[in-house]
Amino acid sequence: MLIADFPLFPDQASTMASKVDNLYLFLIALCGTVSVGVFLTIFYFAIKYRRRPDNEIAEDYEPPKILEVTWIVIPSILFLGIFVWASWVYFQLARVPDNSLQIYATAKQWMWKFQHPTGQREINELHVPVNRPIKITMASEDVIHSLYFPAFRTKMDVLPNRYRTMWFQATKTGRYHIFCAEYCGTLHSGMVGWVDVMEPTAYQTWLAGGSEGSLASQGEKLFQKYACNTCHTNDASGRGPVLIGVYGSSVMLSDNTIVPADDNYIRESILNPQAKIVKGFGPPSVMPTFQGQVSEDDLLKLLAFVKSLGSTRTAAPAVASPQSSTTTAAAQTTKEPKKKP
Amino acid sequence: MTTTTLHDVRFIEPAKTRNYLNEDYGFFSWVLTRDHKRIAILYLISVTIMFMVGGFFAMMMRLELLTPEGDLLTSDTYNKFFTLHGIVMIFFFLIPSIPAVLGNFILPLQLGAKDLAFPRINLLSWYLYIIGASFGTYVIISGGVDTGWTFYTPFSTQYSNTHVFATTLGAFIVGFSSILTGLNFIVTTHRMRAPGLTWFRLPLNVWALYATSIVMLLATPVLGITLIMLMIERVLHVGIFDPALGGDPLLYQHMFWFYSHPAVYIMILPAMGVASDVIAAFTRKRIFGYKFVAFSSLAIAFLGFLVWAHHMFVAGISVYSAMIFAFLSFFVAVPSAIKVFNWTATMYRASVSWQTPMLYAMGFIGLFTIGGVTGLFLASLGLDVHVTDTYFVVAHFHYVMVGGAVMAYMAGLHYWWPKITGRMYPEWWARLAALLIFVGFNLTFFPQFILGYLGMPRRYHAYAPEFQVLNVLSTAGASVLAVGYALPLVYLLLSLKLGRPAGPNPWGAVGLEWTTSSPPPKENFHETPVVTWEAYDYRGMMKAMGETQNV
User: Fold this and answer.
1) Sign of CA dihedral A220, A225, A226, A231
2) How far off is chain B from A182, nearest CA to CA, in Å?
3) What contacts B324, CB < 8 A, 6 or more positions away?
4) What's the CA gap between B321 and B339, in Å, rounded?
5) Residue A332 region by backbone torsions, left for phi larger than 0, else alpha for psi between -120 and 50, else beta
6) Domains of chain A by residue range
7) Is the pLDDT reported for residue A60 higher than 80?
8) Sequence-separated contacts (24+) of B525-528 with Cβ below 8 Å
9) Do residues B20 and B33 lie in contact, with contact meaning Cβ atoms separated by under 8 Å?
10) In this predicted structure, what is the pLDDT of residue A311?
11) Mean per-residue pLDDT over chain B, rounded
C-alpha cells in the first residue's frame, strides 16, 4: 500500500524501458558503491584519525603513488564500458524500425496534436496499438517543445524548423503520461496528455471512428487548393518536377549534389523552394515560397500525400509485425494509392 | 581555540594596531577603494544579498510544489520565479561567489602580493557587477522575466513578452565583471608571486583560481556575443535563431552552452581549490598527489570547453556528434575523480580536526561525489534521453553547485573568516548550521533524483498527483536548508562584535595568508615574505614545533 504510493520506477511499458532501466540499475550499483565507499572512508578516517592530544601531528606518511595510477586507470576503463553500453541503447532509441506505423504530431503552445494516416486527429491524446512500433514525425508551430513518454523511456525535442522522428513500441496496454519536457511558456506544465495503448482489435474499432478521409487524401485536396498540381503534373510536361516516386529517392540538384528526398527535404522544398533546386528546374526556381501560408498541420498532410505518390526506398512499409496482422488494413492506408495530381 | 606559533618567517607578531578595516573611514573610502580586501568585502555584501533574493524565489517555488495543483502562484509567476532563481543564483551569486569574494581577498595574500595586478580594474569589475545587478533588480521590480535562465530561442526572442532585453543586458554586463576578474587573477598569479614562491609551491587554491580565470577569460566573451545576437533578434528582428526569420534555434543552444557548460567549471573549480586548502589545514597534511590535483584543475578547464553539446542529446544533434560529446563528457569526469580520491587519501593517518570548515569540506567531498557520479548517468546517452529535462537533472546540478560549490564557499568563508575580520565565529553554532545544511540539502535534493527518474519534467508549475510525496519531502528539506543558511548570517554578523580575537593563525595552518596579522594591514604584509617551504608544509611546521604540544 505504502509502496504503491511511493514508486521508484515509472511503468515499464515499451521494448526500450527495460534496456534503459538495466543501464540505470547498473549505474546505481556502481556509482552507489563508489559514493557510499567515499562517504564511509571519509567518516572512518575522520573518526579514527581525529585530532586528539596524542594525535596533534599528522603521521609523516604518504600513500604509494601507484594508488593514483589505479584510480586514474580503473575509472577510465569503467567509463569506456559505460559509454559503449549507453551508446548501444541510444542507437536503438534513434533507429526507427522499418515496419513502423506512421503518426504525425504537431506541437504548439500549449497542446499536442496527433494525426493518424487514416485521418483521425486528436489533441493531448494518442491512441496506439500495443506491440507495434510507432513512428512519430513531428514539428512545432512556435517554440521548441519536447515530446516525452516516461513509461516508454523516450523523449525528443520538437523543433519549429524541421521534422524530427522518434519511435517506441508499447508492450503493455494502458494509459501513460505524455509530458512536454522543454519549457515553452505559460502553460508548459499543462501541455500534458495521455497515450492510450490498446489491443489491436480495440485499436481497429477506435480507427473506425470518425475521420475526414485519410491524411494523404486530405493532402491531395490541399495539393489542388494551393494549385501545386498546375506545375507538378504526373508527366514531364509540367513546369515542376514530377513527384511520383520522389519520396525516398535520391535527387540530383542543380549544383550536381545528390540529396535524399526525405521528410525534411519535402518540407524545405515547400517552404523555401530556392534552397534545393532539382537539376533542370533552375536556378532560380519558378516556384513561389509557401512560408507562412501553409500551417504545420497542412504541411504534414501534404507530406503524407507526397509520400503516398510512391516511395522507392521501402517497398512495403506498412506490413505489420505478425502478432498484429489485424491492423494491416489500417496500416495499409499509409500507402493508399490515391494519386493523379 | 588553538593558536599555533609557526616557525621562522611565518610567525609575525599580530600587531592589532592598524589594518585594512581601520585604515580609512567613511562611505567613499569603501566605494572608491582599490584595496582587494575591501573590494572582496563589497562583493561579499553584494553576493549575500543576491543569495537571499535567489533563495526567496527558491523557497516560493518549493512552497508552490507542496501540492500537485498550481494553487499558490499563477503559472506566469511560477515561471518567472524559477527563471529569476536561476539567473540570480548563477550570474549574480555562484559565478562571483568564490572567485570574487574569497579569491579576491585571499589570492594576493596567498601569493605574498600587496594587491592584485590591476586594483582599478578590480574596482571596475565590482561596479560592472553592480550595474548588471541593477538591471536584474529592475527586472524583478518591474515584472520579471519568464524564459528560464537559459533564454532558449525562439521563445526568448519572439514569444516571451517579459523583460528579456533588460535581463540579457544585465547578464551581458555582469559577464565583463567576470572577464576582468579572470584577467586580473591570471596576471597577478604570473607576475606577483613572492620571492621563492614557485608554481609548485602555490597552494592548490591558487591553481584552481588560475584555471577558473582562464575559463572566465575565454568562455565569457562567447556568452556576451550570444546575448548580443539574442538582443538583436528580439529588438531588430534580424533572423539569427528564429526559424520564422530564417535562423536556427539549435545555433543558439550551441553558442549558449559553449559558455554555460564551462561556466559550471567557473563555479566548481574554485570550490575544489578551497576544499584542497581546507582539507590540508584541518588534517595537517600535504594534499596527496599535489601535482595531479593541480594539473587536474587545468585539465578540467580545458576539457570543459569540449563537452557543451551534452546538454543537447535530445535537442536535434546527430547521433555521431552526440557520441563524441558523450565520450568527452566521460573523460572530463576523470580529473574530478582524481581529486575526490586524493582528498580522501589525504585524510589517511592524518590529524583530522572536526572544526566547521572541515565539516563543510567533508560534506563537499561527499555531495560533490554524488553530483559527479550522477553526471555519469547524464553522459550515458541512452539513459540521458529519459532523464534529461527532468528533476534528475535539477538534482544533479544542485548537488554540484549547492552541494559542491556552496558547501565549499561556506568552508572557505569560515576558514578565512578570522583572517578577513580578525575575529572567530562561534564554533558550536557554526557546526550546528553545517549539520542543518547537510541534512536539509540531502532531504531537498535526493528525492528529486527519484522524481526525475519517475518522469517529472523540470519547470513544472503543476504536476501529476503521484509525484506529491517526494515533492513534500523536498519542500520539507528546503525549510531545514533555509534555517541552515540563515544561521551563519546571524552568527557571523554577531561575531564582528562578539567574536574572540583570532590572532594571525588560529588554525595552525601553513600558507602565506596566515603569516600576516588578522585582519591584514592595508599592504597585506609588514615586509615582503620570502618563501622557503613547499605548499602545505605541515611536516616542516610540525618539526619546527618540535615536541612542544602547547597547541
Assistant:
1) positive
2) 7
3) none
4) 29
5) alpha
6) 8-94, 215-335
7) no
8) B525/B112, B525/B114, B526/B12, B526/B15, B528/B112, B528/B194, B528/B195
9) no
10) 59
11) 92
Chain A hits for B319, Cβ within 8 Å: 90-91, 94
Contacts of B462 in chain A (CB under 8 A): 189-190
CATH annotation of B8-14+27-545: 1.20.210.10
Q: Which residue has the cell 498541420?
A: A297
Q: Does B442 touch chain A (CB under 8 A)?
A: no
Predicted confidence band at B98 (pLDDT cuts at 50, 70, 90)? very high
The radius of gyration computed from the CA coordinates of chain B, to the nearest angstrom, equals 23
ipTM of the complex model: 0.91
Only one residue has cell 588534517, namely B283
Q: Quick check: A64 contacting B, CB < 8 Å?
A: no
Where residue B508 falls (left for φ over 0; alpha for ψ -120 to 50; beta otherwise) is: left
For the segment B186-239, what is each residue's pLDDT rounded down to a tens digit? Answer: 999 999 999 999 999 999 999 999 999 999 999 999 999 999 999 999 999 999
Cα dist from A228 to A247, A265, B178, whole Å: 16, 16, 56
pLDDT over threshold 60, residue B547: no
- How many whole angstroms separate alpha carbon A171 and alpha carbon A152? 9
Distance in angstroms (rounded) separating the CA atoms of residues B337 and B334: 5
Q: Please list every residue in chain A whose beta carbon sits closer than 8 Å to the beta carbon of residue B285.
A: 58
- Give the tens place of pLDDT for each residue, B38-50: 999 999 999 999 9
How far is B231 from B234, CA to CA, in rounded Å? 5
Tell me the three state secondary structure of residue B350.
coil
Q: Are B68 and B465 in contact (CB under 8 A)?
A: yes
Tell me the CB-side half-sphere exposure of residue B315, using CA atoms within 13 A.
Answer: 24
> Residue B323 and residue A93: Cβ atoms within 8 Å?
no
Hey, which CATH number is domain A215-335, 2.60.40.420, 1.10.760.10, 2.60.40.10, 3.40.50.1220? 1.10.760.10
